[in-house]
């Protein structure tokens, strides 16, 4: 998964991030429990107690980052393994509002969201693995989740981040993270009212902008991308040119 992630060593150039561009804690399935509650219910090692429609009060959670066992839901944050601001710099600056909402509330892959102690979550902040890793013994699990989330959402990594991820993985006795399904992504030229990043790349335009790596041409085309031309569109390198005609995702 790591080898498929595109490199972007100018992530800070993707400005315009504000947290409000990601709509948090929705009730996607209409069962009365929002995303925060769903994560707390799923990750609790015992039955939870709740009040109101679905406000979780008590359960039993182990915070991956620092090893604390907590029983009061109020002592927990729901952490985005890949922070929202990191996602923005890694590709979400191109997304439409619906895609950002899906990322912020991703229950489709268990590694995306974690119930952790508020203290550990504040310590991590928006740092990437080159800047922050959890307690000894949990780094392998953490970087595997990080890579899987970035793979799922076709996000980029910078060189320092990639080197840290690779070095950490090389010291892991076992690697057992499930490869998640690719998320469907819709690119917008004016995400959330933020300054328009310019025309989306691809479609033989040679405009210098790079679309996300969707993993397969089927997914890329479902998102309205392609075709990509060899020597013109950088996205050409993401896909296999089966008929060797210099064009993919046609």
Q: How would you describe this structure to a colleague?
A:
By secondary structure, the chain is of the alpha+beta class. It has two domains: 2-170, no CATH class; 199-250, no CATH class. 25% of the residues lie in helices and 12% in strands. It is built from seven helices and seven strands, in the order αββββααβααααββ. The chain has helices spanning 35-43, 84-90, 97-104, 118-124, 139-152, 159-170, 217-222; strands at 49-51, 55-62, 69-72, 76-80, 113-117, 228-229, 247-248. It has a three-stranded antiparallel β-sheet. The protein has a two-stranded antiparallel ribbon with strand order 4-5. A two-stranded antiparallel ribbon has the order 6-7. A hairpin with a 6-residue loop joins β2 and β3 (69-72). The longest helix has 14 residues, at 139-152. It is globular. The protein starts with 34 loop residues before the first helix and ends with a strand. Mean pLDDT is 88; it is low at 192-207.
Mean pLDDT, to the nearest integer, reads 88
Measured by DSSP, the beta-strand proportion falls in 5-15%
Number of strand elements = 7
Supply Rg.
19 Å
> What count of domains describes the coordinates?
2
Provide a short characterization of the protein structure.
The protein is an alpha+beta fold and 250 residues long.
